[in-house]
Each structure stands twice: as C-alpha cells, then as structure tokens.
Give the backbone structure.
Amino acid sequence: MRELVIAEVKDALGLYSDLVAALPEEALRLNLPHLPSNTIGSQLWCVAGARASYLKAIRAGTWQGFACEISYAEAKLKDRIGPLLESTAGQVVACLEDVSLEWTVERERLLLSVLEHEVSHHGQLIRYLYGNKLEIPRSWKERYSLD
C-alpha cells in the first residue's frame, strides 16, 4: 500500500511544475473574485511549506511544525515559488525513496497527510483557475477530466 501512496504522491507533486509554467506571474497575485480567499501564490506557498514541513516530520517520525523557506510575500514571485516547488518536490521524492528509513505507523500517517495536502490544493487551485478564467494546464485537465 505504501508504494501505491508514494506513486500517487509523486504524481501529485509533478502537476505543480506544469501549473507554475502555465501561469503568468501576475496570476500569483489573484484571489477568487468576490469571495473571501487568499491568492494563488499563497496557495503555492502553503504547498511548498507543507512539503518541507512534512519532509522534516517524516524524517523525525513526528510533526515538527510548519515552516517555509520563502516569505509569504515572495510567493507572488514566479522565480521564487517555482524553483521552491521544484526543490521541495525533489526532496520529498528522495525522502520517500530512502530505503534506510524505517516506515512506522506515524510515518505512514504523515505520508498520507502529504498526499491529502497536495490534492486538497489541487482542488482549490482548480477553482482559482476557473474563477479567474486562467488556462488550465493539459496535465491538470487529463488528471481531473477538466474542460
């Protein structure tokens, strides 16, 4: 089962590269029109921070707290959030492939939490793309059968 979850995590991680590549930088500042919401960049900041935080927790075997390498404000800059999403994805994959890591029940729970967090943001970001009439990347359309 863990191998299946790891494969799903890897797939979920990869979709963000396509999204950032497709978005113009000004889109990172957009929120959901006429609704209380944060920005697309803020959503991506949460993804990157959660990846780093879950990675730290998986290595430690227990939650260590949330931290993101860049500031909340920097998430509106494509040249800051894009590379961070790439590097955190690589770090998560490397951790999941680390054969020396003993997979305890707590680590497996944290692994499921990583997947849950990634796909929760997929759903939220799809709403942002539709709400702001932004182009949806092909990989997202195929993954979620979107128009």
Summary: The helical segments are 2-22, 40-60, 78-96, 105-131, 138-144. The chain has a mean pLDDT of 94. The chain has one domain: 2-144.
